[in-house]
Amino acid sequence: MNGQPSRLHLDLTCTVEAPRELVFSLLTTPAELAKWWGPQGFSTPEIELDLRVGGRYRFTMQPPEGEAFHLSGEFIELVPPARLGYTFRWEEPTADDRETVVTFSLDAVENGTHVSLSQGRFASGERLALHREGWTESFEKLRKVIGPGAAP
Asked: In terms of residue numbers, what domain contains 56?
């Protein structure tokens, strides 16, 4: 049982060639979020943000085929341009969905920003894998938004 929490917790990183202030803006501005949020082929046609600790957010996600669905939560940490934390819950959950906490940490590095994402704890390995894939593809889209000079 001791290993279970870490197995159901997601940690991802990427480095981008952009200053922290720009990356933080891409994480917190609806028009910018819409450019990169979600897996390949998905769009985010509606984004509502009340960007303050205790403020809420709601995203409408549109898959390439099928009905739109929603995620929402509350901001629990806001330290521009270094950290952003919020709860994450699907409004149309599957049986093994649960509310998780997402934390972004942005660290200035030579020629850019190191982005660390933490999310958990998931109810199942299946949900963890789904989020790992979604965030990995979202990070690829974020790199494209930042430009061709993005670090690997």
From this structure: 8-146
